[in-house]
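Protocol step 4 of 6: record predicted structures for both targets in the notebook before any analysis. Target 1:
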Amino acid sequence: MAEKQPHNVFKQGLYPYLESKAIGIRESMLDVDEAFDSKYKDLVLYDGKFPSQLFVVGRDLGKDEVEQGKPFVGDSGKLLRQSMKLAGLDENEMFITNVVPYKPFNNEVFPPTVRSSFGALVDVEIKIGKPRFVISVGKESTEFVLKKEVKSIISLCKSSFSVKQQVKTFGGVHSFDVIPIPHPSYYLRQGVSANSFLNNEEYMELCVEKFKKIAGLLNSDSNVSIENQNGLSAFAPMRFLYDKEGKLEEKYVLVLNVDDKYIGGLDISKLPERFITSIQTVDSMFRSMDEIKGAWRVYKKDKIKAR
């Protein structure tokens, strides 16, 4: 059974929504660690493009991430970003996030209960963003994304290129490929640097070559936007209308294609004045008309109402 879409995501926007959820989770962590609220105050949620066909999921933050307000910008992050760029992946076209959006106190590993609680934010990101590929960086993030224990991240990475995963979304079920890789810090501890990683055969095999394959798949002819007979693009922004008091009008939802042309919902030229100045845009990804129908029930010719 499909889950209900959290309308606060649309009303607030993704970052404010996740921020409010993260703060609530942090406060609930006081039951686990009485000093949690005082130790973890620097929240860094994500970086990059949303939605995106490619997600990168790490474990948590380091001091550089906290200082710069972006995930994966420390030594390990620089190595990861440089490797992806070398392989043909554009970091501006991917979504980068962490299971826990805080830096561990004294660099200790967050316990599973904390990772599970904050990981709910990543679940929401995946449900809404519907990525095609998710690169899970390191053992703990891979365990979270796959929802199972991983005995050896190196063995898992060597055994297969990717692992199929499914998640219940707000419009049905979404399938995606999880590409596990070792955390770059593993190689940094072995002396691999941004200038020498090309000389490490294992890093090239388990990381760079996988990035190249992802880039090839994303750029292949098979990745052309899926269109149905009505010309619906694979990535359709949804626009929700609010009146000037901020009240959500669920019956007024526009479905647009990538060229911003009206293909369904309400004709904007017929909107009353009170709505014209209060349109808020939120991107949501749908890969076919069937997925849109799974998330939205169409009434007559000019109304789409959330189920």
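Target 2:
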Amino acid sequence: MTDEEFEKIIQRYNDGLASPEEIYWLESWLKHRSQEGLFQNISPSEKERIKRNLYHEMVGKIESSQSSTIDLERRRKRRPLFYMVRAASVLIILSLFGLIAKYVWQIYHPEVVTLEVQSSSDSGSKKVLLADGSIVWLKGESRLTYPSQFSDTMRMVTLEGEALFEISKQTMDGSEMGIRKPFVVLSAGIETRVLGTSFNIRSRENETEVFVLTGKVAVSDTLGKQRIELLPKEKGLFQRKENLLQKMELMPSNEGVVSTQLEEYVAGTEYDMHFDNVKMVEAAQRIGQKFNIKVVLSSNMEACMIRADFTDQSLDKTMDMVAEALNAIIHHSGEVYTINGPGCN
């Protein structure tokens, strides 16, 4: 997003002309930043630069506003001074808001390209690999909008239609024990927030459904007035006309129905990565196909059999599990992973 585009959103917001999506995006961003602290993690020199820029630009804004007030007074002497001063003050406050948002945006959000991918009813499921290693399976006539790179504190995408999500676990600082970086899906009136899990979102004419396969998911309406939490094999339903978000309780007697729905959600995807005494050659092919990589086995590893479940695991975790199961060493260069080990009889 360019400075000009960002300032236009600010201006439309101030003028009351912003779309519901722009209002939600901007207010969510400001709320998120206020919770973190706007100047957290900024060096002293950077703070001084921001202060100088804000000072000089605000001086210009104030002088411009004062000049406009004087000209307005000359042209319309009958208007009370109180209203003119108040109007100038409002302009200054709004300008300050826009300037702060602009400079903080530049620091935390370098230029990021937004990408869009669309599936069709004829193409079946369409796989999308995100920058964080997460996988999205678009179904039917659906559309996913996402950035080429996520920010340091948030992963956010927009979905129209239906998709199965496999979200990788990721932390703010990249360490194993760091604070988890949330993943947020905006879709047809609701916000689905997770840390690392798998779930299916399906939007229809009047309702949006969220079904959890693994992990824990928080679902809320876009205003944040309604919120539910879902665990595996639980479903949330948002009815847009009624503006009602509710958790659908599934009785134990409905286990067969749940299993059928689960099969329906994962159909046409490579979500199921359960191997029960399968040749490693076949497993390597399926792993490579899912993650868009090439897996090469040393000749003495081709006879190995593997029994493991890599479902809902990231590429790195999958490779760690393979190495442990086969007592192997894995090297990778770019998108090529080579598995070496003692071999199997």
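Step 5 preliminary note on target 2. The domain at 114-266 is CATH 2.60.120.1440 (Jelly Rolls). Residues 156 and 184 are 5 Å apart (CA to CA).
Proceed to step 6 after PI sign-off.
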